[in-house]
Write a structure and sequence with these properties.
Layout (H helix, E strand, L loop, with lengths): L1 E5 L12 E5 L9 E10 L3 H5 L20 E8 L9 E4 L6 E5 L4 E2 L16 H13 L7 E4 L5 H12 L4 E6 L2 H9 L4 E4 L5 H8 L4 E6 L3 H10 E9 L20 H4 L3 E4 L9 H13 L7 E5 L4 H10 L5 E5 L1
Parallel strand pairs: 8-9, 8-11, 9-10, 11-12, 12-13, 14-15
Antiparallel strand pairs: 1-2, 3-4, 3-6, 3-15, 4-5, 5-7
Helix pairs in contact: 2-3, 2-8, 5-6
This protein binds NADPH dihydro-nicotinamide-adenine-dinucleotide phosphate.
The site of NADPH dihydro-nicotinamide-adenine-dinucleotide phosphate has 27 residues, from α2 and α3.
């Protein structure tokens, strides 16, 4: 078994030196436990926060111990009722080839219903984040104008498509390259721009001249500032992530226009997908239908080999992914 440990806590941008590849014995299960051969493991932006030694909504990763995170794989040994070798399960012990865990911490999934990687992307936590954030947290209604940042990423690309399917009148996305902007147009976004091409405020004004009702924030900083300026009276923002500042060592310089929240009577509402589990069944039913009918597309960027998981994570922070960044192990 090979697994990735946190070798040192990053200061600012992480590097390969913060990680270590470690070889261990393949574990054997005790009573109530299973061993899973992971097939895909997830790398996610929130993991950067867990590399810092600070108290947050999830505890920090320990030094010199394996990292963890979403994973899907096959049960290869079981001492638990209800799970047999050959079953496919979703669980929380990624960043390794073989995982030993209590059967209660694994959820059986159907490998015939969707490619197993989809349980980490479009049908998993990523998809639910987009669905819950847009519809529940921001309360998007038909006829509204929606802006989403990191729009070619895993969450953002689904936000834009769900918005269109639920009747948004105008959907705008921002992303970090011309190729990503082209992909957004193909996915049905009404307008898209590369945020390197000029101030976000100017690009957003051109893309949504009549203003924005709902902003789905994945980026923070200049994107949030631009959205506050562009939002209409009673606009709502679902504050999902602020990836622009995850590697910062100084407090952010923007938004500088926060006082507009008062006059415009805006709602900026942070959320965690973990609080929206009650929507999971409804979400899976609706998303599975959209996928079956070809009305939602999802991109995955797959890096091979557990030894390359750190590079996949660093690539995610640099924007090298289209859709969900995954490691195939
Ligand atoms: P993505 O697939 O969107 O990958 C991250 C993307 O962020 C990169 O591809 C990159 O694309 C973009 N990015 C990186 N740095 C910057 C920057 N400085 N400015 C603008 N864009 C940048 O990841 P996810 O879909 O998994 O996550 C998206 C956001 O949602 C993150 O902020 C994450 O923390 C948050 N999140 C929150 C959850 C919650 O419960 N609140 C749950 C899941 C995710 P580009 O080339 O366009 O720059």
């Amino acid at each position: 078994n090979r697994e990735i440990h946190l070798a040192a806590r990053p200061q600012g941008w992480p590097t390969a030196d913060n990680f270590r590849l470690v070889e261990t014995e393949v574990p054997t299960p005790g009573p109530g436990q299973i061993v899973v051969r992971n097939r895909y493991v997830s790398v996610d932006p929130y993991m950067r926060g867990r590399m810092n030694d600070v108290r947050s909504y999830v505890p920090p990763f320990a030094l010199d111990a394996p990292l963890d995170g979403g994973a899907v794989g096959e049960v290869v040994a079981s001492e638990a009722e209800g799970l047999q070798p050959g079953d496919t399960v979703l669980h929380g012990l990624g960043w390794r080839e073989y995982a030993l865990l209590d059967a209660r911490a694994a959820r059986k999934v159907d490998p015939d219903l969707a490619p197993v990687s989809a349980y980490l992307s479009v049908l998993g936590m990523t998809g639910l984040t987009a669905y819950a954030g847009l519809l529940d947290v921001a309360g998007m209604k038909a006829g509204e104008t929606v802006f989403v940042s990191a729009a070619a990423g895993a969450v953002g690309s689904l936000v834009g498509q769900i918005a269109k399917l639920r009747g948004a009148a105008h959907v705008v996305g921002s992303a970090g390259s011309a190729a990503k902007v082209e992909r957004l147009r193909a996915l049905g976004f009404d307008a898209a721009f590369d945020y390197h091409d000029g101030p976000v405020r100017d690009s957003l004004k051109a893309a949504a001249p009549d203003g924005v009702d709902v902003y789905f924030d994945n980026v923070g900083g200049d994107h949030l500032e631009a959205a506050i300026s562009a939002m209409k009276v009673h606009g709502r923002a679902a504050i999902c992530g602020m990836i622009a500042q995850y590697n910062d060592t100084e407090p952010p310089a923007a938004p500088r226009n926060l006082a507009l929240v008062i006059g415009k009577r805006l709602t900026l509402r942070g959320f965690l997908v973990g609080d929206h589990g009650h929507l999971r069944d409804e979400f899976v039913r609706e998303m599975a239908g959209w996928l079956r009918d070809g009305r939602v597309s999802y991109d995955e960027t797959v890096v091979d080999g557990i030894e390359n998981a750190p590079e996949a994570f660093l690539g995610l922070l640099r924007g090298e992914n289209l859709g969900k960044m995954l490691v195939r192990v």
